[in-house]
Specification:
The chain is of the alpha/beta class. The chain has one domain: Ribonuclease Z/Hydroxyacylglutathione hydrolase-like (Metallo-beta-lactamase, Chain A). The chain is 22% helix and 28% strand. The strands form 4 sheets. Strands 10-7-4-3-2-1-18 form a 7-stranded mixed sheet. The chain is globular and about 55 Å long. The N and C termini lie close together (5 Å). Bound molecules: zinc ion (ZN) (2 copies). One zinc ion (ZN) binds next to helix 3.
Length: 282
């Protein structure tokens, strides 16, 4: 299996627009790997994209992706869906506003995302209704798991009350990727399917020290309901016996640059921090 981390950033990009902090200034000066765009991964084996942050068009171009057949979403928070209009940009034939047949994208939707996604709206109503009508996407709902080509994808729900988040377990030829980039607490760690991944792609969670503005998270901070701490995430990865851990969704307010993450990597075995455009074979 071959994947590219199209975007290693979180809900704000680095550099954060207008921000004069050292991390953003360095990112502005040096670009990638210091600069980070929104969360997305591309799985080359089946031309599968997971999530569409605002920067997805640029990410696809910069990584020379020339075919996109399948699209999935981990959840419907803005940082993961706001670039969804890329399906129109890819498939639209301006002569009749319909899709080029060979550019139609198959949208694979686990329940209940297959319903909820139709609530994403523009001024004219449901975006997905429009994309489907014009033929830009073809929606394929599924329960639990779906097979595309040689690849089996299992969607494991994380029930977060008003919002459902999916962790995807992607398996091919005996290799296993667990993709869990955002809002994955409580992680379904008792599920057998998440055990023993060759690669776990996950957010590092809260750093308790060194944050912007000298901030420390109070015990009851809302982020503690969606995120583990960095130490808890490392312990979780160990409990589920992940062979390699790759951290994504790296937030600007954690106040750490590419060099800082490289230094943390040296302290641990089989732990890496992603950067935009990072390609991984597993
Ligand atoms: Zn900044
Ligand atoms: Zn997110």
């Amino acid at each position: 299996m071959e994947i590219t981390i199209l975007g290693s950033g979180g809900c704000t990009v680095i550099p954060k627009p207008l921000c004069p902090c050292d991390i953003c200034r360095e990112a502005r000066q040096k670009g990638v790997p210091y600069a980070r765009s929104g969360p997305a991964v591309f799985i080359h084996d089946e031309n599968l994209l997971i999530d569409t942050p605002a920067e997805i068009g640029r990410q696809l171009n910069q990584n020379r992706i020339d075919s996109l057949q399948h699209l999935m979403f981990t959840h419907l928070d803005p940082d993961h869906v706001e670039g969804i209009r890329v399906v129109e940009q890819i498939a639209l034939d301006f002569r009749d506003w319909r899709a080029y047949e060979n550019k139609r994208i198959t949208l694979l939707l686990p329940e209940p995302l297959d319903r909820d996604i139709f609530r994403l709206k523009s001024f004219y109503g449901s975006l997905l209704d429009f994309y489907q009508r014009q033929g830009y996407v073809k929606c394929i709902p599924f329960k639990h798991q779906i097979k595309i080509g040689e690849m089996r994808i299992l969607g494991i729900p994380v029930d977060r009350g008003q919002q459902m988040v999916f962790i995807y377990v992607v398996e091919k030829a005996g290799r296993k990727l667990v993709y869990a980039p955002c809002d994955i607490r409580p992680f379904p760690e008792t599920r057998s399917e998440v055990q023993g991944a060759h690669l776990l792609v996950i957010q590092p969670g809260i750093f308790e020290t060194g944050l912007k503005h000298g901030f420390t998270y109070p015990k009851n901070h809302i982020s503690r309901t969606t995120l583990y701490t960095f130490e808890q995430t490392l312990a979780l990865a160990k409990r589920i016996a992940a062979q390699q851990v790759l951290f994504v969704h790296l937030e600007e307010y954690w106040n750490r640059g590419y060099d800082d993450y490289s230094a943390i990597e040296r302290e641990y075995k089989d732990v890496r921090f992603a950067h935009d455009g990072m390609r991984v074979n597993l």
